[in-house]
Amino acid sequence: MKKFLKRIGCTAEIEYYDRLLYFLVLCTLLVIGLFLVLYALFVPFAPAILVHVIYFILSLSLYILLKYKRFNIVRFCIFIFHLIQLTLAVFVWFPYDTGFNIYYFMVPMSAFIIMRYSNRIQRYFAVIFSFLALILYLLSEILPFDYYMYETSDQINRIFRGISILSILMPMIYIFTMIARRDFIVSNELKELASKDSLTQIYNRRILYKVGNDEFVKARNHSYFFTIVLLDIDFFKNVNDKYGHPVGDVLLKELTELITNNIRKTDIFARYGGEEFAILLGNTNHDEGYAIAEKLLSIIKNHVFVIDGNQMSITVSMGLTQYTHDFDTFDEMMKTADNALYAAKENGRDQIQDSFVLIRAAK
Questions:
Q1: Calpha distance 143→132 (Å, rounded)
Q2: FRET pair for 224, CA 20 to 30 Å: which of 77, 170, 246, 299?
Q3: Tens of pLDDT, residues 16-46
Q4: pTM of this structure
Q5: CA-based nearest residue to 279, from 261, 299, 293
Q6: What architecture is the 205-362 domain classified under in CATH?
């Protein structure tokens, strides 16, 4: 099946709603083929068989249009072919008991799935054909159309009704499953976009504060510690001025990759703003957090970045603080760590400033 779909042009690059057309045309062909077999076996009514053969050929020709990406023409043809063939079966060929009129329910159910709501013509088309299908269904239920051309037995009527219901439900189950799957994927993609920094693909400030507030509540209610490390690239403006902002962006991405490879998977690494980053070290006391910060300080200082043929080394300044019950909010912790980072820059950069040391010195 995958090879066949690929051969007729159904590839991953095609938009979701256009890919649905391939499945719908295939379902149409299968249903027509099934009814042709039933007609040949149980209802040898030549006009119905002839029209179904024509309907099958026209539906098969839709794959040619799909191959050449004529998706809108296929959309309109699916509905027009369906309504014409269905109306002949309901009002001209067979008695009411065959249950063919239940196929009218497919029109409004599928109209707004197949048609693009953003396209005004397709939107109006979906509304008009949905109401037309509703009117035709009501007419088939209310008016006594008893001049049908072919009589069928109760057993054949029950078979037709069952197949009619199944052939409606099966495509609908598939379509709604695909829509639910697509919504799930889109939802996850939106969550990913909302949680990640667009340049570095690490967590953004919003996620840092979300996790940080949760950690703060946990630490306040239990015997639990966590540490915050803020770091800022020293003289990053000089990199942008000398090499240009594109090189600066690459440097930020390579730095985040270097840090990510040297911290624990459980740590929350986020871009705090510009060239400033934050690392939330969960279940980590002051000494453990300081050791991790020292390790990163050394790794970054000794790493040589090669960007567009340019070799460069950088240093970072760090501010560190650990949760204590003296803090009232996570935001207060972040401000304390930021003050420590500012002190590290004021004292010569390329160093770690401990907020506890600064607090004791202030006292």
A1: 16
A2: 299
A3: 667 777 777 777 788 778 878 877 777 776 7
A4: 0.60
A5: 293
A6: 2-Layer Sandwich (3.30)
